[in-house]
Design goal:
The complex is a heterodimer of chains A (325) and B (345).
Chain A lengths: L1 H17 L4 H18 L6 H26 L7 H17 L4 H25 L4 H20 L4 E2 L12 E2 L2 E2 H19 L1 H11 L1 H6 L4 H27 L1 E2 L7 H11 L11 H20 L4 H26 L1
Helix pairs in contact in A: 2-12, 2-13, 3-7, 3-8, 3-10, 3-11, 3-12, 4-5, 4-6, 4-10, 5-6, 5-10, 7-8, 11-12
Chain B lengths: L1 H23 L17 E5 L6 H17 L2 E4 L11 H10 L3 E4 L8 H9 L3 E5 L12 E4 L3 H15 L4 E7 L5 H14 L7 E8 L4 H14 L3 E6 L2 H14 L6 E4 L3 H9 L6 E3 L2 H17 L9 E4 L3 E4 L5 E3 L4 E3 L10
Helix pairs in contact in B: 2-10, 3-4, 5-6, 7-8
The chains are: A mainly alpha (325), B alpha/beta (345).
């Protein structure tokens, strides 16, 4: 009896705590952007159209899930968009020289893994700040993509591969399903595994994490390698959607990815955040962009609103975190 | 605890999705088609990027036609001229149900899938200002500013006449994959093989990405790297203004001639102070005006998009649809100190 009462009481407290999560800032923004979109244009609230439009941003959403882990661990990876492009270009180039397409895809993912490994190796082995290293590889990887492909695009992929955004399962576009699936996996890893706890521990206090016996180097390495693989995967999805690969695809995409992660309430200083926020933030960013575009709002105003939301998100999650203390 | 929290968040999302579903039917009745009049037509023009004065002139042409003919005209552009940045804008215009999408594309092929989607939705796709070579099936017609076959060679001839056909020359272009600029540069290289230009050597091609600051930096680098440079051709409006600025800053004006494709308003100062002697351009205003008139004719079924078809545009006269359904607006104009004040765009 007493036990039962205690349980109830505990749940109540949890409920109150629950509403003090930064994800709610993101949910507020989602409500804001959907309301804004539907007020601005009668063409916005069309389920089919919204589903269809989500495919344009899914690649960034997927990469942002992985980046959330990296930011929680107190690191950053700005080379994600370049890894997307380089993997896509290499995959396309292999296809062009006659490698069977299935192998090309696998090799593309392996390349992504190696690119991520290189990032992780330089960061952990030489103890360099990830910001500097990945700004370097941001240019490096895109530069390599431009060297190998030059100023041309490769297309005419097998028909089973092209147009992933036109494939639907149960009425939902495949890219969105992939994003949702990866989100569930990421949420489970981050919240339910020792690995996930270790990621938080590193981001909260790296020294303390080392002293408590966490293999920090290994975990950082795993994170960057995964960032590479997921970026390559995103790059290949983009290639399927556009039907071509060229060196300047997703230029500036790293900022979109970071924006999604931060809109989701992840703390840029590490230790706090969740993929739940990132997943919702994906819908915030995409519904906002679609809503403003379909209302023919000028791009300058669009960027202003997105910038404002980003600031709001950071201030809001900071406020929540300070209350939690 | 976390699990609970996630559950609540996910249920909120689901509620949202259901709300979308409820509203989904609301917009569908709008598609019921009746006989259209010109007044019902909605035409959108998507330039390469926002804040580019060149495209403002094209928009001017569209607006004039819109006032004369009575269709609804809007224009919207992405922030950057990156290869895929126009895709979301095209998708949203399809959703808006416009009748015509006129666009100055940022890539020769990255937009093919979304163009196809637009055409499948019954929208006329008009490429304005630059074609998409090799992807002609993904558009209805292309409206080109001038005969691109002679753009490169006419630039070489113009620069040659300014430097007595001798000396080192360089090119400052837009982005490395700008399809038009690359085509014209090829044309310049072919033209330079002519014995007439035997004493002119092309020493470098650099890219300013149609960004004023980057173009200025690239132009300054050219001036430092090649002290004997006699001429720079910049076949892009942003680039030629930045190059003229760099040459003015360095005080290399009479020996080093800048020419290229620029708008009179951007170049007026440099022509007046002697930095630039002559440059060329077609009329982007006419291009927009022609595109708008043709767009209306195409949607109303007055003109068929087929090679050899002749249609007429007020003030521009009879115009023939050329090979691959491409249309040339007119010959280029050379601007010098004598005539620059006659133009305002």
């Amino acid at each position: 009896m007493l036990n039962k009462f205690k349980m109830k009481n505990k749940e109540k407290i949890d409920l109150r705590k629950m509403f003090m999560q930064p994800e709610y800032g993101t949910v507020l923004m989602l409500i804001f952007s959907v309301v804004l979109g539907s007020l601005l244009s009668p063409y916005f609230l069309d389920f089919g159209f919204l589903l269809d439009s989500s495919s344009m941003y899914v690649e960034y959403g997927i990469v942002a899930l992985c980046l959330t882990f990296i930011i929680i661990s107190g690191q950053i990876d700005l080379s994600v968009a370049s890894m997307m492009t380089l993997s896509a270009c290499t995959t396309a180039l292999l296809f062009e020289i006659g490698v069977p397409f299935g192998f090309c895809l696998i090799l593309g993912l392996i390349l992504g893994m190696l690119l991520g490994f290189f990032n992780g190796f330089v960061i952990t082995y030489f103890k360099l700040p990830p910001l500097i290293v990945t700004i370097g590889t941001l240019s490096l990887y895109r530069g390599i993509a431009q060297i190998i492909l030059g100023d041309r695009s490769i297309g005419h992929f097998p028909s089973w591969f092209s147009g992933i955004d036109f494939r639907y399962v149960l009425g939902i576009p495949v890219p969105l399903l992939i994003l949702t699936g990866l989100f569930i996996i990421a949420a489970l890893i981050l919240n339910k595994t020792i690995f996930g706890r270790q990621v938080y521990a590193i981001g909260t206090n790296e020294k303390a994490a080392i002293y408590s016996g966490i293999n920090v180097k290994k975990i950082k390495m795993i994170l960057f390698v995964f960032s590479g693989i997921i970026s390559a995967f995103g790059g290949i999805m983009m290639m399927s959607r556009l039907g071509i690969a060229r060196y300047n695809l997703s230029t500036g995409g790293e900022l979109e990815v970071v924006t999604i992660a931060l809109l989701g309430g992840t703390d840029i200083n590490g230790g706090r955040g969740n993929v739940v926020g990132t997943f919702i933030a994906f819908f915030v960013l995409f519904s906002l962009k679609v809503g403003l575009s379909v209302a023919n709002i000028k791009i300058e105003s669009q960027l202003t609103i997105i910038g404002f939301l980003l600031i709001f998100s950071i201030v809001f999650s900071n406020f929540i975190y300070s209350k939690q203390k | 605890m976390l699990n609970k929290k996630m559950k609540i968040v996910i249920s909120i999302l689901l509620v949202f999705i259901c709300m979308f579903g409820l509203f989904a039917n609301a917009t569908e009745e709008a598609t019921a088609a009746a006989a259209k009049t010109v007044g019902d037509l909605e035409i959108v023009f998507i330039p390469k990027n926002s804040g580019n004065p060149y495209f403002d002139s094209i928009v001017g042409g569209f607006e004039k036609a819109s006032q004369e003919l009575g269709f609804t005209f809007t224009t919207i552009a992405p922030a950057t001229a990156e290869a895929t940045s126009q895709i979301p804008f095209i998708k949203t215009q399809i959703q808006r149900g416009v009748d015509v999408i006129a666009i100055a594309p940022n890539s020769p092929d990255a937009l093919n899938q979304v163009f196809k989607q637009a055409m499948d939705a019954g929208i006329k796709v008009l490429i304005v200002n630059s074609d998409i070579p090799g992807s002609e099936d993904y558009r209805d017609v292309a409206i080109l500013p001038m005969d691109f076959e002679i753009t490169g060679s006419s630039q070489v001839e113009l620069l040659g006449s300014l430097i007595n056909y001798s000396g080192e020359i360089a090119v400052l272009s837009a982005t490395t994959d700008a399809p038009d600029q690359n085509y014209w540069i090829e044309g310049m290289k072919v033209a330079l093989k002519d014995p007439k230009y035997a004493n002119m050597t092309l020493v470098d091609v650099v890219y300013g990405d149609d960004d004023p600051q980057k173009s200025l930096t690239e132009a300054e680098a050219l001036l430092t790297k090649y002290p004997n440079l006699r001429g720079i051709i910049s076949p892009t409006t942003v680039g030629v203004a930045a190059t003229a600025q760099a040459v003015e800053n360095a005080g290399r004006a009479p020996q080093l001639q800048v020419t290229g494709l620029g708008t009179p308003n951007q170049m007026r100062r440099f022509v007046k102070n002697g930095t630039v002697t002559a440059f060329a351009l077609w009329s982007p205003f006419d291009e927009g005006y022609l595109a708008a008139n043709l767009a209306v004719d195409l949607v109303m079924g007055n003109v068929e998009a087929k090679e050899g078809v002749v249609f007429s545009v007020p003030e521009l006269g009879d115009i023939t649809i050329g090979p691959m359904r491409s249309i040339i607006t007119g010959p280029p104009t050379v601007f010098t100190i004598d005539n620059i004040d006659d133009f305002n765009f």
